[in-house]
Amino acid sequence: MEALLAQRIHGLCLGYEDLNDHDTLRRDPLLALVSGKSDPSGQDRRHPRDKGKALAGKSTLNRLELTGPDLDPRTGIGRSCWIPTRFRTCLWTCFWKRTRPRPW
């Protein structure tokens, strides 16, 4: 969830407002690196169709943004279900990790 949120926020900061841009951006190793991915090239992905794509595509990010809190996550629809408290915690964690003072 944190990596998805980081990907979306960094995409917005870079001027990519539309989710359809992320189908191309998901192959960008620099965006993957700043989004916190440990494998920015995407070569360690489990499914062969995802090899070389370190980041999420537009459909996954769309589910992150639009899936409501009343959807039952056990149904299998929208696996990255938006839960308000979880989303706020994740947003705060991402912000804190990026803005706290560095020791150097």
Topology:
Blueprint: H1 2-13, H2 22-25, H3 29-34, H4 58-66, H5 84-99
The average pLDDT score comes to: 75
- Beta percentage is under 5%
How large is the radius of gyration? 14 Å
User: Count of helical segments?
Assistant: 5
Number of domains: 1
Task: Name the helicity range.
Answer: 40-55%
Q: Provide the succession of SSEs.
A: HHHHH
- The rounded distance between the terminal residues' Cα atoms is 29 Å
* Major sheet summary line: none
Which term fits the overall shape? globular
The helix-and-strand class reads mainly alpha
Low-confidence segments, given as residue ranges, are: none
Secondary structure tally: strands: 0
What does this protein structure show overall?
The protein is mainly α. The protein has one domain. The protein is built from five helices and no strands. It has helices at 2-13, 22-25, 29-34, 58-66, 84-99. The model has no long low-confidence stretch (mean pLDDT 75).
Key structural traits:
single chain, 104 residues, mainly alpha, 0% strand
Summarize the structure.
The chain has 104 residues and is an all-alpha fold.
